[in-house]
Design goal:
This protein is 45% helix and 14% strand. The protein is globular. α7 crosses α8. The protein is of the alpha/beta class. The termini are far apart.
């Protein structure tokens, strides 16, 4: 009896010891996890694609689409970090950020100057989807996504990243960069393979600048690709100089208005031409509507929300409302973080755009900067639609 009791006690102690060891191992695994692991810093309340998406696709929800595109961009950041820290496909941090959504990596965009990865192409992974009984691509899910990262403050890539940052600051253009040409080439191939309606482009910070530039280039050719821009850069010396020129021009027009009638007649003719151009511009902007996501506490992108009229905010649970210009035509969709990070580094970060508690408003107003950015699309007539 005594031996049996002792055996029981020993057995119980062994089970308790194993339980404690398992708990210690679990805690150690969490502590050892990288802060950029998908299960650590990725979105929490999301639905992984499943057979139910055949009936009702999660991709039709604009919030879900925003979250996934942001995750793809985060994957590009991590692809470069994996490269720098010599992690492979098996132990890399990046793959989980696209595999979770049934996509696969088909191409990485590398900067020929330093070999760094600044972009990637992700395509719908039919094999992975079939393994979860998803027989077809859910409605609204793009066939391919081009994701472009922003500035990465790491020694192997910071020099080239800052070169492009300064390029935009000085000229408000990124067309001279090798990254612009690489992204444009990749996007052209995607459009050729899948059609413009099945392709999407997204970027964060500097990457959003490239995405906007590349998207505008295709739009001038009549090719309209869905575009998502997170914290796009809005501050440049070129813009400041242009604003100064506009103020000087406004002052000169005020002076000219007090001149004799002949001058007034000339001015009226010019104004009529201007109104005619405005109407033509308003008609064209219906065709390409980029999505901009900004945080007013981020001074790099907040000027996109600088109004020249009265701002009106609506819920973003639907995409029925669009930004309008003075003539009522759609220009862009501007989503403003109304309750989120206030400190600059967090306000400029990508993580806020897949956060569970994100609260966005879609601002409707006459944004001078957006109008300025999109007006350049239609300097020449569009042609060659796809």
């Amino acid at each position: 009896m005594a031996k049996g009791s002792l055996a029981t006690v020993n057995g119980g102690g062994g089970e308790e010891r194993k339980k404690n060891e398992a708990e210690v191992m679990a805690v150690a695994a969490v502590e050892a996890a990288h802060p950029y692991d998908f299960h650590v810093s990725g979105p929490r309340n999301f639905s992984s694609p499943n057979w139910k998406d055949l009936i009702r696709s999660s991709w039709r929800d604009p919030n879900y689409k925003r979250m996934v595109i942001a995750c793809f961009i985060q994957a590009v950041y991590l692809l470069e970090l994996d490269r720098q820290e010599k992690r492979n496909a098996e132990n890399g941090l990046a793959p989980k950020w696209w595999k979770t959504f049934k996509y696969k990596l088909t191409q990485t965009l590398e900067d020929e100057r330093d070999g760094s990865i600044y972009g990637a192409v992700f395509e719908w992974d039919r094999s992975a989807a079939l393994s979860d009984l998803i027989l077809m691509r859910p409605a609204g899910a793009p066939r391919a996504v081009l994701a472009l990262r922003g500035t990465l403050l790491k020694s192997p890539t910071i020099r080239r990243d800052l070169e492009d940052d300064l390029r935009f600051l000085a000229w408000e253009s990124l067309k001279g960069s090798v990254r612009y040409h690489g992204a444009l080439q990749a996007l052209n191939v995607m459009v050729e393979n899948f059609g413009s309606r099945n392709v999407c482009i997204g970027g964060h910070s500097l990457g959003a600048g490239f995405a906007l530039q590349v998207g505008k280039t295709l739009a001038k050719q009549g090719v309209f690709v869905e575009c998502h821009l997170f914290n796009p850069p809005s501050v440049s010396l070129a813009m400041s100089i242009r604003n100064m020129g506009e103020k000087a021009g406004f002052l000169w027009r005020r002076i000219k208005s007090s001149l004799p009638s002949k001058a007034e007649t000339s001015l009226d003719a010019k104004e009529k031409i201007s109104v005619s151009c405005e109407k033509a511009f308003g008609t064209e902007t219906k065709k390409w509507i980029p999505h901009l996501y900004v945080n007013n506490s981020d001074y790099i992108c907040c000027y996109y929300n600088d109004t020249s009229g009265t701002a009106v905010a609506t819920d973003v649970s639907t995409e029925k409302t669009k930004m309008v210009n003075g003539h009522g035509e759609a220009m862009a969709k501007l989503f403003v973080m109304c309750k989120g990070p206030q400190k600059f580094l967090e306000a400029h970060g990508l993580e806020q755009w897949w956060c569970d508690e994100v609260e966005l408003q879609q601002a409707l107003h006459n944004s001078k900067l957006i109008n300025m950015q999109l007006r350049s699309l239609y300097a020449a007539p569009a042609s060659g639609k796809l």
